[in-house]
Specification:
By secondary structure, this protein is an alpha+beta fold. The protein has five helices and seven strands, in the order E-E-H-H-H-E-E-E-E-E-H-H. The protein has one domain. Strand 6 and strand 7 form a beta hairpin.
Length: about 210
Amino acid sequence: MAIQSIGHTPFYGKTASRGREEESGFPVNSLAGLTGAKPEEESFYERLREEAGEDALREWKAMQEKTDHNLAIVKRMETEQGSKAPYSKLAKNGIIEYNGVVFSCDDENRAITLGDVSDPDQVLTIPLEEGGCLKVNRGNLDDLARAIDMFSPRDIGRIMRAIATDAKVQKVKKEIEDTKSSAAEGSSESDWGEGSKTEAADKRRKEDGEI
């Protein structure tokens, strides 16, 4: 099932019922503590603000802050009562199968995973309402759409908002990389052009008997 969107909030076909839209929500937390960003992060934040708007920047930072907050809670809960992956009550032998989509339970990191999550750069990490998180490879978002009914209404809201924000972030990252590549190519062409001019000048001087 393809992910669709209305305004700034995507939805997954039949699952976006009126009741779920009212219950679903993604927490936008305080941005306190994020002002100490590194220069490259500040550059990225500025580009995201320009390309996708202030709301997208706020949502991205809030999602990162929420993830860090959840990880701290998870560590405390692991110490107090041991770890369990979210939705593990649906699992059999550490595997959740829903609508033909297979999730793996990672009790150690209190996460459920979808797809190959070995490369963090290709993984979207989404904090869930009851703690823990969903880790999904960006190449498996269609699979996630097919199994979205497995999640609670509030977690559906979190997932939808996270995917929408991540799409904007990835677009900005690609534009930054494309700009860097274009600048590097332009520099190389300029250096090659100067070298060609020098060679041509030397050839003319040889022909004129100057060298």
